[in-house]
């Protein structure tokens, strides 16, 4: 009797990815919806009209927003939307694909897009390795608005504080989670106090994870991306609107 092939673990991320694509290939959408039957949902916040004795309360939206996320699988890792290449061998990635295999939205995605229904689009690029997109360089000259003369300085990395631990009051009401994606694509989540900890504490945590990395900039993964420069160092997590944010390390 031949020995079983142990090169591809049955419960590993590669096996789970194969299962995901097999499930996606076997699904058939048989429900047709007419245009006139579709729901026109309002996704904002509103106030009740008319006189009331108390201040007018906010009315929560009746329908959750739909968020489409692209999950691109390559031979050497995976990306989420246009984010950096992530390794499939980290504990976080293994849990990510295990949750996908169970048919639930991964907790890391749910944290990035709260109060949303998440639609994950699987793209199979396993026959080739990931190639970072080429970004066209700006060829013109910029000027500072306040000075009116002289070229605008290029974006430079921030000289951040030394790496170290950050003390968190887990019993406080302002505890939140911030996810930091390192320069090599490995992500880690940190609990912080939104009204106490500052942007410089995020730099301290990022430096602790990559002590040999040179100067870098933390960039919020938003649309458009938002760099956290020297002017943001003393802002609290709450002031910088970074609760449950995903932040990338850029050299």
Automatic annotation (TrEMBL):
PROSITE patterns: SEP
A Gene Ontology molecular function term of the record: ubiquitin binding
SUPFAM superfamilies in the record: NSFL1 (p97 ATPase) cofactor p47, SEP domain, Ubiquitin-like
Any single biological process term in GO: autophagosome assembly
Pfam families, A to Z: SEP (PF08059)
Membrane spanning stretches: none
A Gene Ontology cellular-component term: cytosol
Domain named SEP: residues: 66-131
Highest taxon of the lineage: Eukaryota
Region of interest called Disordered, as start-end residue ranges on this chain: 136-156
Name of the featured protein: SEP domain containing protein, putative
């Amino acid at each position: 009797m031949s020995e079983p092939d142990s090169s591809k673990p049955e419960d590993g991320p590669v096996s789970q990815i194969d299962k995901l694509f097999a499930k996606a290939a076997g699904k058939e959408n048989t429900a047709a919806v007419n245009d006139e039957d579709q729901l026109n949902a309002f996704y904002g916040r509103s106030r009740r009209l008319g006189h009331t004795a108390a201040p007018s309360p906010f009315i929560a939206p009746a329908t959750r927003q739909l968020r489409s996320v692209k999950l691109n699988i390559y031979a050497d890792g995976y990306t989420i939307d246009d984010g950096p290449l992530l390794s499939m061998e980290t504990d976080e990635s293994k849990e990510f694909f295990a949750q996908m295999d169970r048919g639930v939205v991964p907790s890391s995605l749910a944290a990035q897009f709260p109060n949303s229904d998440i639609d994950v689009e699987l793209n199979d690029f396993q026959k080739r390795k990931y190639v970072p997109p080429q970004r066209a360089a700006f060829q013109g000259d910029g000027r500072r608005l306040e000075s009116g003369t002289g070229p605008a300085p290029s974006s430079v990395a921030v000289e951040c504080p030394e790496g170290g631990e950050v003390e968190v009051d887990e019993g406080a009401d302002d505890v939140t989670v911030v996810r930091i994606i390192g320069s090599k694509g490995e992500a880690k989540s940190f609990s912080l106090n939104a009204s106490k900890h500052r942007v410089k504490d995020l730099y301290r945590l990022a430096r602790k994870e990559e002590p040999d990395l040179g100067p870098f900039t933390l960039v919020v993964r938003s649309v458009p991306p938002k760099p956290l420069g020297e002017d943001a160092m003393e802002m609290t997590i709450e002031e910088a609107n970074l609760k449950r944010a995903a932040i990338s390390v850029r050299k």
